Structures are given as C-alpha cells and as structure tokens.
Amino acid sequence: MTIKRIIALLATASMTLAGLSGCTVDGKQVIVTTGALPGTVFSIGRLSCDKKTARVYLANYYNIYGKTGDICLWDQELNTGRLEKSIRKAVIDRLSVVYALNLYASDNDIKLKRTEEDLVDRAAEAYYASLSQEDRKTLDVSEKDISKMYQKEALASKVYKKIVSRADDEVSDEEARVMDAVLITLESGDDATEEKAIKELKNGTDPSIVAKEYSIDKKTQVTICRRTYSDQICDAAFALDEKKYSEPVHTADGTYIIYCLSKFDQKKSDENRNSIIESRKKKIMDSIIEKQNQQDYSYLDENAWKDISDRLGHKVATNSFFKTLSDKISF
Q: Which structural domains are found in the chain, ordered by start?
C-alpha cells in the first residue's frame, strides 16, 4: 500500500466508530491557543483531553497507518512528512468526536451499563498487559488511565449507535439505482455538433467512438445515479433500454446525450444504497454536532500537541488499542 493510499484512507476513515471527520477542530468554534489547562491538549466545553490520552491515540495511529504488511514506513528512506501530518490530524479528529459525543451523553443522561463498564475494564486490563515496559514508560500510563480512555471511547460508540438508529434505512430501488452509460457532453447551443453525434449513433457507430470525437468532457464512460447527476439527466437515462441512446438533454450546464450500457448495475446499486444510508446517518450527526458547537467553545493547544508529537516519535510499538476494545465490547 502506498503512502498516498494510506493518506486517502485516513481522510475517509479517520474515525472508526463513525467514519466521521473532526467536529469542533475544523469548525468555527475552535480557538487555537497556547494557554490551555496544564496537562491538556484540547478542551471541548467542560471536557479536556489530557496528554496521556493524546499520546496513546497517536502512538496507535502511527503504528496502524505507518506500517503496510511487514514494512514500517518510518524505517524507510521515504518522505513521510505528509503522512505524519495526516495521521496527527486524524488523531485530533477522532478525539474531538469522542469528546463531543461524551458531552452529548452527559447532557442527555446516556451512560454505560454496569455490565458494559465491566467489559471496558477487562479490555483495559488486556491492553495494558500487552504493553511492553518500554511502551508503558514512554506513554506514561497506568491500567486505570487506559480504563478511563476506554470509558470515553465506548460511551462515544454507544451514543453514535443511538443517534444514527434514527436514520431511515429504507432506500427504494429507484433511489439506489446505478446504471453504466456513455455520456456525450456538448456545448449548449452547438446544434451542428449535436446533429452530427446523433446521426453517427443512428448509423450504428460505436458510442465510445462518438463520445471521443464530439464530447467536450474527456470522461465519457460513467455510472449514473441520483446522488451524482441531476434528476433531468437521471430521468432521461433511466428511461433507456440497454444499447439505446437518449435524445439530447438540454440543461443549464450543457447538452448531454446518454447511451445505456447497463440499465441496472446490481453491485454498484447495492453500494450506493449503503452510501445513501451512511449519508443519512452523517446528516443526523452533523446536525447534532453543529448544535453543540453553538453552545460549547473548544480549545486546541497547538504547542502542547506539537510537543507530544515531537517527543513521542515512532519508538512505541503498540497498535492494538482500538482492536482490544472492539474485541471486548460493541454496540
């Protein structure tokens, strides 16, 4: 796996409990400061993230995303500056969401059950036992510290599951539908080119050749669904049978001729259905985070965060913090 691919993974899945990007760090309510409470990296409302938590998360992210197979990217003669920057941002993103969801839990009286707390304690015991003496010393943590981190992580997962359960998971075949097509894009008002393209299609010329000859957009083989194209284009496309082409579709952005390669791509439609459901969940989460941002100011101590990142380096071996918890408890 290349560094570029790993950075892309971090950008889309920096938070495994929800697949969310950072909430308050990237939001307008964040205040960057050099004078946060001693021993903390950032605060969201009345909750503060301590340096121990930041170290544990960062060390695990370094080892999860800094290794591919048996190769440690940090040991290679590679330019890993961009990767390191992406990892540091992903850690703050994840922690910001965890703490924001813990605030939401406090405000809405959501707690872990006693049985859930017991599972969290077992996970903390297992994870702490997995740490080498050197890792424990570098991270400067006790089993009790790990348990507190797991409490917040588990509660955030519980809150997330509770919140997104409100999302409607019914998606019609029409809404989820994805079809494969050749899309010929023309300039608005270019009647001459439009007539030439239609004539060649009528004469049986391969639509890919017609598209290459006349389309002003070089990307001509596309998948069409209602999430990515206007209703005007989708209505014309979905009315086609396979190996048929549409009449020119005139829109404000240009003129389009659509050739149907496949009326219904089952695999892509199933993937699109899942994406629609996830989008609904994210919309619910975003509305809650936005509301919370309006009432809770957040502080990020850049100096403290840089100091942790610089001091930690890549000398800690642990990478099982998140897996150990998920093996013990899930919601």
A: 3-162+296-328 (no CATH), 179-263 (3.10.50.40)
